[in-house]
Amino acid sequence: MTKNISIILLLLFSKFCVFAQNKEKLFEQSYTLLNSMIENENNYSFKKAVFSAENAYLEDSLDTLSINKKIKFLNNLSQSLIKERFLAYVERDKEKVNKWASVFEVMHDTIPVNINDKIYKYEPFGYDFNDTFGHNKRENLFVSKLLETRKGNCHSLPYLYKILAEELGVEANLALAPNHVYIKHRNIKNGWYNTELTSGMFPIDSWIMASGFVHIDAITNGVYMKALNNKESIALVLIDLADNYNAKYPNNDGTFVLKCCETAIKTYPNFATALILRAETRYNQIEKIQDKAKHDLEFKNLEKEYAHIHQIGYRNMPEDMYLNWLVTLKTERDKYENKNLNTFTKQK
Hints:
Elements: H1 2-39, H2 46-57, H3 64-84, E1 86-87, H4 94-108, E2 111-115, E3 118-122, E4 126-127, H5 143-149, E5 151-152, H6 156-167, E6 173-177, E7 180-187, E8 191-195, H7 205-209, H8 216-220, H9 230-248, H10 255-267, H11 272-286, H12 292-311, H13 319-331, H14 333-336, E9 346-347
Parallel strand pairs: 4-5
Antiparallel strand pairs: 1-9, 2-3, 6-7, 7-8
């Protein structure tokens, strides 16, 4: 009887181990996909990249059919707006600007929708100030959560904007500020300008500088305010994947996280978030080294990494100060809004 119980327990343990390994394989599969997008631009798809990282964390439970259905609806709505609108913009890149305008309207405007001769009111996406950084629930950062609840943050909102723009066949450049992601566009008339998805406006650069945590070296070195190319955007998703892995397996040995960091840094050398995560992961590994001489040597090398992060201009911004800074866009809109932009002015 005891022998039979032991066999049953062994079988159950074996099945548990196989299940756990399969869950971890999802992260490896996502890494392979993201890395292939960096190595071969023909494999690039920001939409696939984002949802593969989310699906790995969700243990392959992501409802991709529902997600694609929602994205298709938003894409169709954007296309209908393109046909209906006339922009106060006459430059030769008007078609591209019109597509950006339609995505922006879908993200931020209430829109009447005619379905079978019945008018419905489409409600825009909103900002969710609850657990903004995903500390309590990682899914609060996910685009899939945004599509389900229609509430997001400075991570999921610009990600969805980029996905929708690319569904229409136009690019959208992600850009970074302290603890923040936004969109940068460039058109013939205005040059580079900012699109802020958390507030639905187009802030001037001085708003970002007003945070008090953007050192001039950070701008010069592309840490902040740089229009990221597609490969650099995939680097952001790689760090999302690494953070998802840490959240799912908090006691991991750091091997997978460092692999994600190294690939992201190779693609985007001054990606401060990746540099910091690599340094923090190495610190945890070094703390476990028993040999004092090796420990001290590794720690000195780590100090050089932290010094480099400071040298390129990164400064830590406390989370409460970030939220206060974010609110200034609405409380001081007249001060920070780009009044020269009529790019998204709709005329009937």
